Amino acid sequence: MKALMLTIALAGSMLVAGQANAEDAKALAQKSGCLACHSVDAKILGPAYKDVAAKYKGDKGAEAKLVAKVKAGGSGVWGPMPMPANSPQVKDEDIKTIVHWVLSL
């Protein structure tokens, strides 16, 4: 019984930590200016983050591709609106954190 309670407590703390990490990543996206063009659920100028996550679900190279796209910018994948380069004004570590969060949605 103690093992079961410990497992439940550990799972609960991991869930809370995951929510905190997601909130931190969303705040980082806000601070970095990402939410001026994107939102979690709806297209603004760029695609909704949930649409990005769905498009790349199961793609093992998605994180590296998206990190490169966020850093260098680009166009044509989600329509005619280009995405500006975000490097060097957004740190590489921050870009990786945001992309990881987006893909987790």
UniProtKB/TrEMBL annotation:
<feature type="binding site" description="covalent">
    <location>
        <position position="34"/>
    </location>
    <ligand>
        <name>heme c</name>
    </ligand>
</feature>
<dbReference type="GO" id="GO:0020037">
    <property type="term" value="F:heme binding"/>
</dbReference>
<dbReference type="Pfam" id="PF00034">
    <property type="entry name" value="Cytochrom_C"/>
</dbReference>
<keyword id="KW-0249">Electron transport</keyword>
<dbReference type="GO" id="GO:0005506">
    <property type="term" value="F:iron ion binding"/>
</dbReference>
<dbReference type="InterPro" id="IPR036909">
    <property type="entry name" value="Cyt_c-like_dom_sf"/>
</dbReference>
<keyword id="KW-0732">Signal</keyword>
<keyword id="KW-0408">Iron</keyword>
<protein>
    <submittedName>
        <fullName>Cytochrome c class I</fullName>
    </submittedName>
</protein>
<keyword id="KW-0479">Metal-binding</keyword>
<dbReference type="InterPro" id="IPR009056">
    <property type="entry name" value="Cyt_c-like_dom"/>
</dbReference>
<feature type="domain" description="Cytochrome c">
    <location>
        <begin position="20"/>
        <end position="105"/>
    </location>
</feature>
<keyword id="KW-0813">Transport</keyword>
<dbReference type="GO" id="GO:0009055">
    <property type="term" value="F:electron transfer activity"/>
</dbReference>
<feature type="binding site" description="axial binding residue">
    <location>
        <position position="38"/>
    </location>
    <ligand>
        <name>heme c</name>
    </ligand>
</feature>
<feature type="binding site" description="axial binding residue">
    <location>
        <position position="83"/>
    </location>
    <ligand>
        <name>heme c</name>
    </ligand>
</feature>
<feature type="signal peptide">
    <location>
        <begin position="1"/>
        <end position="22"/>
    </location>
</feature>
<keyword id="KW-0349">Heme</keyword>
<dbReference type="InterPro" id="IPR002324">
    <property type="entry name" value="Cyt_c_ID"/>
</dbReference>
